Amino acid sequence: MTELVIPFIILAVLFVALALTSIRIVPQARAYNIERFGRYIRTLGPGLNFLIPGVDRVNTKFDLREHVFTSRPQPVITEDNLVVNIDTVLYYQVTDPKAAAYEVANYIQAIDQLTVTTLRNVIGSMDLERTLTSREEINTRLRGVLDDTTGKWGIRVNRVEIKAIDPPPTIKEAMEKQMRADRDKRAAILHAEGDRQARILKAEGARQQAILEAQGDQQAAILRADGEAQAVERVFQAVHANNADAKLLAYKYLETLPQLANGEGNTFWVIPGEFTEAVKNVTHAFAGDAVRSRPSTEKDEDAGGSGPAQLTGPDPTERSASAQAARDAAEAARRAVEDARDDVRRAGVAGTRGTESAPVPREEG
């Protein structure tokens, strides 16, 4: 009985082992290439798959997700014979597991070498400045060449990016100097533009200020002139309304002379020629009042006339009183003139020019 059980157990174990070897579970986004007796039969997709034990075997396994490949920095010569190191990054995906396994031995190495050669061809037709500023153009041209070539390998290049472009150290230093010079130039231009705008604004402000000040001075001058004109007109009307004679005007003239010398900067003042005439008018005015107060016979006697009037005039006492009144009036006029002159001297009279004042006339009794 025991001898019969052992063979059944061995057979059961072998059956289970064969069943397990015939079952293949493929994960999602994976693909397995199956060979039968060394010949490609099919590609297993994700899920549960069955194989013939001892006949079918898994040759290659592929990950169908997108992959990233970073190449080492490659020296590339530009059109102007400068060597630059360029580092690229590729994003690719296996689309045909059969072609990737049987069309190319090592698709990673093939993509790397193809990228280097294509990059040298592209950069060789550009100078350094264009190389540094045309990354998008380089990426597009690289992707076009790689996608056309790797399509038959069952590889799709989704994207190519230039990771870094490193010029030689001397070129870097020259570029830094150039960029520094450009920045200094732009800074100088901006500073000059700012200074120019500031000067223009200051000039416009000064112009507006000068215009406003001139307009203000003009309005003030017009108002002052109107005020003075109105004042002169009122004085003129008052003088004509009151019928002022030359004697009153001469007296007001003498009163005004000291005010002319009271200026803050007056250190030299000239007495006009009309001063003598005004003094004469004032003197004759005071003397004339006294003469007019005497009788007509006394006027004739003072005038040196002869005739019957001398026999019929008032007595000598009245004549002496009239003469004394005339002398008092003349003395009062003389004192008024002296006071006016003293006021002029106190105001800082430095000298006189023109006609001198006539002596004050005195009448003898």
From TrEMBL:
GO molecular function terms noted in the UniProt entry: peptidase activity
Keyword Membrane attributed: yes
One record GO biological process: proteolysis
UniProt-listed Gene3D superfamilies: Band 7 domain (3.30.479.30)
Residues spanning the membrane: none
Compartments reported by the entry: Membrane
PROSITE patterns (UniProt xref): BAND_7 (PS01270)
Gene Ontology cellular-component terms listed: plasma membrane; side of membrane
Residue ranges constituting the Band domain according to the UniProt record: 21-179
Region (Disordered): 290-365
Any single Pfam family the record assigns to this protein: Band_7
SMART domains: PHB
InterPro entries: Band7/mec-2_domain, Band_7, Band_7/SPFH_dom_sf, Band_7/stomatin-like_CS, Stomatin_HflK_fam
Keywords carried by this UniProt record: Hydrolase, Membrane, Protease, Transmembrane, Transmembrane helix
Membrane topology: Single-pass membrane protein
Biased composition range(s): Basic and acidic residues: 328-346
Stated family: Belongs to the band 7/mec-2 family.
Protein name: Regulator of protease activity HflC, stomatin/prohibitin superfamily
Species annotation: Nocardiopsis flavescens
